[in-house]
Amino acid sequence: MDAFYASVEQRDDPSLRGLPVAVGGSRERGVVAAASYEARRFGVHSAMPSITARRRCPDLVFVKPRFEVYKAISAEIRAVFAEHTAIIEPLSLDEAYLDVTENIRGIGSATAIAEAIRAEIRRRTGLTASAGVSYNKFLAKIASDQMKPDGLFVITPAMGPGFVETLPVKKFHGVGPATAERMHRLGLHTGADLRAQTIEFLTAHFGKSGPYYHGIARGIDHRPVRANRERKSVGSESTFSSDLRQREDLEAALAPLIDKVWRHCETHGLAGRTVTLKVKFADFQQITRARSNAAPVASREALERPVLELLQALLPAPKGIRLLGVTISSFAEPGETAPVQFALPL
């Protein structure tokens, strides 16, 4: 979807159309969750601190997010996908991979399917979507960004290897800013530079990601589209209207985050072993602290305990805290529970 959250807000409030809009945060605090294309022209983007976004675009309009609305529209969009294929791998509320090799309507062209899906999304929601069509996930993802907004781009098997050669490594899906910088230090700036390296060289410098980089530099990606993809973690975070320092205030701020994470785990039958506390200070320095248990977390209290212990280890806070987050991960297999501890007579 094109600037999904911001486009929904502009659709529902005509007064926002044509204006630079940021969803989330405020003029002074918080983080931008999404930016309209008008805002992006000023260099505003998601995950940017609100105060930085306002400096770049003084006329930026901040809108409070409505996640329940976005989820409902996302469900409408997924319903359109399901009319064409059952093999759908959601990445987020506004993005997914579809395998249409065998599709429900028997359409013989992936490009025609993409056009049909885009048209139906526009008809049902009034929103625009961009699509990338290719013979593997890596290239389909790259293609989806080529003609935004409201575009479609196709990378055929004949085009694939040559297309990748000219692509800057920072554009590769799966190569973040830190990895791109490491590649640059090694003289790897484009797909052609990556392709010139052996798999041994890439593995030595990038570990288990080496074979993946070796493949995609040649337009090769064998990863299947995985329906019902396993969730890796559940988390919640909050940015505060004023910086917090006192233990009591921080513990009070953590309580609703712990409640939300545990409620999701309980509802979906998830039990994780690793609890992570995220802290962002007033100067935007960010740290995480984690604790792993031998057995899955089995109650809200068992989730709260390590979170508060991790917080206590950071106190007294050297500077104000503007954001806290709680995440649980390393999920157990279904049916695996915490061991029972019996009382023994003394």
TrEMBL record:
<keyword id="KW-0235">DNA replication</keyword>
<keyword id="KW-0548">Nucleotidyltransferase</keyword>
<dbReference type="GO" id="GO:0003887">
    <property type="term" value="F:DNA-directed DNA polymerase activity"/>
</dbReference>
<dbReference type="GO" id="GO:0003684">
    <property type="term" value="F:damaged DNA binding"/>
</dbReference>
<keyword id="KW-0239">DNA-directed DNA polymerase</keyword>
<comment type="function">
    <text>Poorly processive, error-prone DNA polymerase involved in untargeted mutagenesis. Copies undamaged DNA at stalled replication forks, which arise in vivo from mismatched or misaligned primer ends. These misaligned primers can be extended by PolIV. Exhibits no 3'-5' exonuclease (proofreading) activity. May be involved in translesional synthesis, in conjunction with the beta clamp from PolIII.</text>
</comment>
<dbReference type="InterPro" id="IPR050116">
    <property type="entry name" value="DNA_polymerase-Y"/>
</dbReference>
<keyword id="KW-0963">Cytoplasm</keyword>
<keyword id="KW-0515">Mutator protein</keyword>
<dbReference type="InterPro" id="IPR022880">
    <property type="entry name" value="DNApol_IV"/>
</dbReference>
<dbReference type="Pfam" id="PF11798">
    <property type="entry name" value="IMS_HHH"/>
</dbReference>
<dbReference type="GO" id="GO:0006281">
    <property type="term" value="P:DNA repair"/>
</dbReference>
<feature type="active site">
    <location>
        <position position="95"/>
    </location>
</feature>
<keyword id="KW-0234">DNA repair</keyword>
<dbReference type="InterPro" id="IPR043502">
    <property type="entry name" value="DNA/RNA_pol_sf"/>
</dbReference>
<protein>
    <recommendedName>
        <fullName>DNA polymerase IV</fullName>
        <ecNumber>2.7.7.7</ecNumber>
    </recommendedName>
</protein>
<dbReference type="InterPro" id="IPR036775">
    <property type="entry name" value="DNA_pol_Y-fam_lit_finger_sf"/>
</dbReference>
<dbReference type="GO" id="GO:0000287">
    <property type="term" value="F:magnesium ion binding"/>
</dbReference>
<dbReference type="InterPro" id="IPR017961">
    <property type="entry name" value="DNA_pol_Y-fam_little_finger"/>
</dbReference>
<dbReference type="Pfam" id="PF11799">
    <property type="entry name" value="IMS_C"/>
</dbReference>
<dbReference type="GO" id="GO:0042276">
    <property type="term" value="P:error-prone translesion synthesis"/>
</dbReference>
<dbReference type="Pfam" id="PF00817">
    <property type="entry name" value="IMS"/>
</dbReference>
<comment type="subunit">
    <text>Monomer.</text>
</comment>
<keyword id="KW-0227">DNA damage</keyword>
<keyword id="KW-0479">Metal-binding</keyword>
<keyword id="KW-0460">Magnesium</keyword>
<comment type="similarity">
    <text>Belongs to the DNA polymerase type-Y family.</text>
</comment>
<feature type="domain" description="UmuC">
    <location>
        <begin position="1"/>
        <end position="176"/>
    </location>
</feature>
<dbReference type="InterPro" id="IPR001126">
    <property type="entry name" value="UmuC"/>
</dbReference>
<keyword id="KW-0808">Transferase</keyword>
<dbReference type="InterPro" id="IPR043128">
    <property type="entry name" value="Rev_trsase/Diguanyl_cyclase"/>
</dbReference>
<dbReference type="GO" id="GO:0006261">
    <property type="term" value="P:DNA-templated DNA replication"/>
</dbReference>
<keyword id="KW-0238">DNA-binding</keyword>
<dbReference type="InterPro" id="IPR024728">
    <property type="entry name" value="PolY_HhH_motif"/>
</dbReference>
<feature type="binding site">
    <location>
        <position position="94"/>
    </location>
    <ligand>
        <name>Mg(2+)</name>
    </ligand>
</feature>
<dbReference type="GO" id="GO:0005829">
    <property type="term" value="C:cytosol"/>
</dbReference>
<feature type="site" description="Substrate discrimination">
    <location>
        <position position="5"/>
    </location>
</feature>
<dbReference type="GO" id="GO:0009432">
    <property type="term" value="P:SOS response"/>
</dbReference>
